[in-house]
Write a structure and sequence with these properties.
By secondary structure, the protein is an alpha+beta fold. The chain has one domain. Helix content is 53%, strand content 13%. It has helices spanning 12-24, 53-64, 70-77, 90-97, 101-128; strands spanning 28-35, 41-47, 87-88. Strands 2-1-3 form a three-stranded antiparallel sheet. A hairpin with a 5-residue loop joins strand 1 and strand 2 (41-47).
Length: 129
């Protein structure tokens, strides 16, 4: 893999190769999980999350190569989100409805509800001005 020690830009080809290596290793999934507001599918990567203790142990061994703790890896995956006005594709929805991703979708839905409340609040303020 690559190591970035400064804020310099990473060559797009190098980044793509690194992501592909992680897909091959079974650490990432690659598919069209998101659709833009113009209905264009976007190729995305999603973390592979363990569904049982055996998978968790296998994942932990793979992550040790990169000096990553499986608990940190899973915790960071909980901070998923889709920028409005993009939305999940059918493939993305199907992925996030499966355990253990379904735990993350609940958090995403809560965040979207909060975002909608904030947007409604701002719209109300703008209309009152």
């Amino acid at each position: 893999m690559i190591s970035v020690l400064d804020n310099s830009k990473i060559d797009r080809n190098t980044g793509a190769q690194s992501f592909e290596a992680l897909v091959i290793e079974g650490l990432l999934l690659k598919d069209y999980f998101i659709i833009t507001n113009t209905h264009r599918p976007i190729l995305c990567y999603a973390k592979v999350l363990p569904t049982n203790d055996d998978e968790r142990e296998k994942l932990s061994k793979k992550l040790r190569i990169y000096n990553i703790q499986v608990s940190d890896y899973i915790e960071v995956s909980r901070s998923i989100g889709v920028q409005i006005p993009s939305q999940l594709s059918t493939i993305g929805t199907e992925l996030l409805m499966k355990f253990p991703y379904s735990n993350n979708i609940k958090l995403l839905q809560q965040q979207q509800q909060q975002d909608n409340l904030i947007m409604h609040h701002y719209q109300t303020i703008l209309y009152r001005v």
